[in-house]
Amino acid sequence: MTRTLRVASYNLHKGRGMVGPHAPERNLQVIADLDADIVALQEVDFRFGGRPEALPRGMIREATGMVPAPHVATSGQSLGWHGQTILMRPELAAGANVRRLPLPGIEPRGALALRLAAPDARGLTVIVMHLGLARSSRRAQLARLIAKAVRISGQDFVMTGDFNEWHDDRGLESLAGLQVVAPGPSWPAPWPMLRYDRLALSAGLTLHASGVHDSPLARRASDHLPIWADIALSAP
């Protein structure tokens, strides 16, 4: 018996679209339209000061039917850690735990690892990342994440987010042995040309389908389009 989950990744650009204004209700509708089980989010907080939330947590469940991962925020005002969090369907939240993964590089960066315990996803770890602007930093960050993923995930894991890498043949060397999925151009949202957003699947997972969620609203709501993948998990 296999179980299939839809995992998505979405860089919200702080709810500002390409040029503003701040309108998180647009992002929340895009998230709802994805109809995903798990959504890895980047840039959910504003960048400066106390890093206040750009995606208001009080709006999430009503607008999307999803709940955020256990709270491990940058500050008391933040939704995420280094701007990242993971949303999931409420039935997946029972027993889920999250770890912060500090990353090397010339900018402050970090990833989150969510380990699920619900029967429909037991043992799956989802890691959300937003890698650095310099390729040397991205290489070091991916190497760190692979080492951490192998230690903390047990068996099945998905790494996803904004890789900030436009090439398929360089900068991703640490992902050898994983199935790397770049469903299509996702940036810039109004005229997508570059495949910044990806997923990397461990060997125990099977990809059924993947895509870029492209809609008129998604093209206005952020500078990135969301990506998604339908992933089959083997029964324990």
UniProtKB/TrEMBL annotation:
<keyword id="KW-0540">Nuclease</keyword>
<dbReference type="InterPro" id="IPR005135">
    <property type="entry name" value="Endo/exonuclease/phosphatase"/>
</dbReference>
<dbReference type="InterPro" id="IPR036691">
    <property type="entry name" value="Endo/exonu/phosph_ase_sf"/>
</dbReference>
<protein>
    <submittedName>
        <fullName>Endonuclease</fullName>
    </submittedName>
</protein>
<feature type="domain" description="Endonuclease/exonuclease/phosphatase">
    <location>
        <begin position="8"/>
        <end position="224"/>
    </location>
</feature>
<keyword id="KW-0269">Exonuclease</keyword>
<dbReference type="GO" id="GO:0004519">
    <property type="term" value="F:endonuclease activity"/>
</dbReference>
<dbReference type="Pfam" id="PF03372">
    <property type="entry name" value="Exo_endo_phos"/>
</dbReference>
<keyword id="KW-0255">Endonuclease</keyword>
<dbReference type="GO" id="GO:0004527">
    <property type="term" value="F:exonuclease activity"/>
</dbReference>
<keyword id="KW-0378">Hydrolase</keyword>
